[in-house]
């Protein structure tokens, strides 16, 4: 019996966003979600669309595992997204005590 292999094809938008991210043209997660449909991104990350929306609104909610998964999808270094999430978290919480 022949072996059937099903290949998963990710959206070409991931490559585009990865290049823009590496070049410093993307500054927050909302910009990522405008180029890659939230439904597609959520499915590929293994999370619900509402959960993804929550992470986009509050970058402090991203887990390191989730950021690493997104970095893998974008084919970029994990530190780029970790630094972006931290910068956005600090900006959001600035002035709160």
Topology:
Layout: H1 13-22, H2 29-35, H3 38-45, H4 49-57, H5 64-74, H6 78-93
Helix pairs in contact: 3-4, 5-6
Architecture, according to CATH? Answer: Orthogonal Bundle
Number of domains: 1
Question: How do the helices and strands follow one another from N- to C-terminus?
Answer: HHHHHH
Terminal CA distance: 65 Å
Contiguous uncertain segments of 5+ residues: none
Beta-strand percentage? under 5%
Silhouette: globular
Highest CATH level, the class: Mainly Alpha
Instruction: Classify the secondary structure makeup into a structural class.
Output: mainly alpha
- Characterize the biggest β-sheet: none
> How many DSSP H or I helices?
6
- Overall helicity: 55-70%
Describe the model.
The chain has 97 residues and is an all-alpha fold. It has one domain (13-90): 434 Repressor (Amino-terminal Domain). It is 63% helix and 0% strand. The chain has helices at residues 13-22, 29-35, 38-45, 49-57, 64-74, 78-93. The chain starts with 12 loop residues before the first helix and ends with a helix. The model has no long low-confidence stretch (mean pLDDT 88).
């Amino acid at each position: 019996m022949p072996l059937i292999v099903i290949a998963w094809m990710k959206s070409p938008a991931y490559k585009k966003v990865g290049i823009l991210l590496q070049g410093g043209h993307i500054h927050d997660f909302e910009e990522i979600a405008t180029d890659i449909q939230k439904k597609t991104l959520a499915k590929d990350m293994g999370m619900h669309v509402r959960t993804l929306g929550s992470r986009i609104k509050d970058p402090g909610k991203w887990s390191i595992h989730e950021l690493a998964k997104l970095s893998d999808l974008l084919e970029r270094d994990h530190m780029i997204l970790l630094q972006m999430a931290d910068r956005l978290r600090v900006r959001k919480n600035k002035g709160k005590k």
